[in-house]
Amino acid sequence: MKSYLTDGVTVRSWLLTRDHKRIAWLYLTAATFFFFVGGTAALLFRLELLTPHADFFGADNYNKLFTIHGIIMVFFFLIPSIPGVFGNFLIPLMIGAEDVAYPRINLLSWYLYIGGGLLAMAAILLGGVDTGWTFYTPLSSIYLNTYVTLAICGIFINGFSSILTGLNFVTTIHRLRAPGLYWHRLPLFIWSMYATSVIMILGTPVIAITLLLVVAERALHLGIFDPRLGGDPLLFQHLFWAYSHPAVYIMILPSMGVVNEIIACFARKRIFGYSFVAYSSLFIAILGFLVWGHHMFVSGMSMYAGMVFSLLSYLVAVPSAIKVFNWTATLYRGRITLSTPMLYALGFIGLFTMGGLTGIMLAALPVDVHVHDTYFVIAHFHYIMVGGAVMGYLGALHFWWPKMTGRMYPDNWGRLAAAILFFGFNLTFFPQFILGYLGMPRRYHAYPPELQVWNVLSTAGASILGVGYLLPFAYLLWSLRWGARAGPNPWGATGLEWRKTSSPPPTANFEESPVVTEEAYAYE
Amino acid sequence: MNERARGNSILGMWIFIATEIVFFGVLLLSYAIYRWAYPYGFAEASGHTQLLKGTLNTAVLLTSSLTMALAVREASTGRPGKAQSVWLLATAALGAAFLVIKGFEYRAEFAEHLVPGPGFVYPGPLRGQVEIFFKLYFTLTGIHAIHLTIGCLLVLWCARAARAPIEGVGLYWHFVDLVWIFLYPLIYLVKRCG
Amino acid sequence: MKAYLFVFAALMALLGATLGLAFLDLGALNLVAALAIAAAKAALVLLFFMHLRESDGLAWIAVGAGLTWVAILFGLTFVDYGSRPSPRAPVTEIVGPLPGALGESPSDAAPVK
């Protein structure tokens, strides 16, 4: 039977596809491109930070580099990647459906992503933006003459990609499940993607209108953030973080979903506390909407509001912790195989925990007063975004690669790359905790000489990370042509995508519509 | 469209409406913050809005919701005839009327130098606060007008294409009306007594 | 059909009411009344014109979720603004930063032209 990969071989059949699996590949290609753009920006500014003085870049260009890194990585990699690639590929398969609820809107989502991305790239190539990915006013709305409007337009359009994807997933999960697939039989990846979709739907409009207001100020003098005219710059910060905090849960929840699938498979056990893990995803989403003020503790926001947001921020750590406990309990007495995906999942658990614990430190007002806007914060969120989200993404790529392509990659190379990445990651970011604690501010191209040793370690780590990321790129591409052919279920995993269809699947996903009769993770 | 696809399309539009609630909600939050901070300025500024045109426009939109509901009702009988087209065209016409009246409003405000920016002129100590009000006014009504224009195009599409998702378009149209229902008192009726 | 006409009549009546009430001086209640009437109109449109009454629970959840999130946005943002030194100034020359917005107290807010 024809697989979805061979069902139409023209470029047109790919660019005008309505097949969720092909759209996943479109996202994968674009996301990989953006990842390397954002990563290059990082390597460049880490190069600059090797010495305490300005070497290659002055302050303005340095500002552009970290802005590009932030915008591309947040909006064009982390937010779209797992939903766009694995959400799209897996959700219909995991629920036994032929496709998502709105296939054409799915394709539109990708084009909006690309369109937004092209505008952002244009802003970069024409001369860059230097506001930081946070676009704080009045710097962004009044004072700068870099390509702020163009970059914002790119992000705005990309936002609609997010909204439509979330809308598609919610409808799909509610209405297209196979017979017998009750909510509590769903793979936990689906619960995670559902929670993620809720955030995408409710959160994204906030930043859409907020950035629109910045553009309105720049272009039409319709600004309300100008303090000289009675406006409040803090209002922008409230509105910006009201999206951007929930956005970080868009970035992490899908990876958490992936980790469930990988751990259950390679420990050969049901996930311990299925309901707790399922509901914790929803609670992370809900509580994540309540904590945005913790980005503003030292901004001039009232101290009382700070206390409220601090307390709420402690609460949001609880469901995340519940997940970590459940994964640990799942691993306990499991029959563990240290395959490549499992290495990424284990790495995720450890690194995410470190990121999460340092988040709790930051939620404490007295601590945050000292480390806000230092490298401590940078380290914290990179432990979560890279140690967590990107590891989850790579784990997903390595776990479902045989299903998506029908090929196996060489597992030894996979494990080597995972080990290199783990080492490189820690070498890059652990010194940054120290740097932040010692007071090095973020977004500075120059620093006191006594901090140099930590910066050198961090840059060394970044180079190793760069190599680590290139390896999968190489051997996965290699496997497309020369990798061993994979059977329908090379890992022996549960789930409709593994047990009821071939690798790669046919366009319509299943030869016959599956009917579900057992719980999820029915291992031995 | 089969039953299931119809259900999906309606559900999809409800979820989209949720995003629009948030979208306008943020604008209303900005309005609320500044009205709370500058109550006198907002009260005075509201007195300079075109109450007659605004009220007329509200009536126009409410009527358009009625005609849209009637159009959707025709569609649900399964045998939509000319009546459906009539109601749809009436809806679009009322939408267009709203935009025309709004255009006259904007023209009047331009003539009174109430358009924010370099051309803004206002006597008295509350000038800055009044300007903030009008910044929010133009942003709110401008974005509303864009949504309304899109709505008119969607309604015309339904009038032409038998397979268009008329229930979904109806929901969108009613939502645009809902936004205006809240904008009306917040813009025109801040302080009309004394 | 009849139901729609009744709803329409109610909507127009509420429009008249909100307009009329605006001309009475009710102080703070003016805003409350205006919003209450708007909410009533909105409820009529939602329940009858948009058929929310006969809709899937999911539609209710979608609307509820949107409104809840907006309520949270309002609530928590006002926790900040409400606990800063009061920015309300009497009619004055100034339009300057909201006192407290830049970390200063109201007495520091000097007139800015």
List keywords for this structure.
heterotrimer, A: 524 residues, mainly alpha, Cytochrome C Oxidase, Chain A, 69% helix, C: 113 residues, 3 helices, disordered C terminus
Textual characterization of the structure:
The complex is a heterotrimer of chains A (524), B (194) and C (113). Chain A contains 16 helices and no strands. Chain A has helices at residues 11-15, 20-48, 59-95, 103-126, 139-143, 148-175, 188-220, 233-267, 274-288, 303-331, 340-363, 365-371, 375-405, 411-437, 452-482, 496-499. Chain A starts with 10 loop residues before the first helix and ends in a 25-residue tail after the last helix. With 194 residues, chain B is an all-alpha fold. Chain B has helices at residues 3-37, 39-46, 51-76, 82-111, 127-160, 166-188. Chain B is elongated and about 60 Å long. Chain B starts with a helix and ends in a 6-residue tail after the last helix. Chain C is mostly helical and 113 residues long. Helices cover 60% and strands 0% of the residues of chain C. Chain C is flat, with a radius of gyration of 21 Å. Chains in contact: A-B, A-C, B-C. At the B-C interface, α1, α3, α5 and α6 of B face α1, α2 and α3 of C.
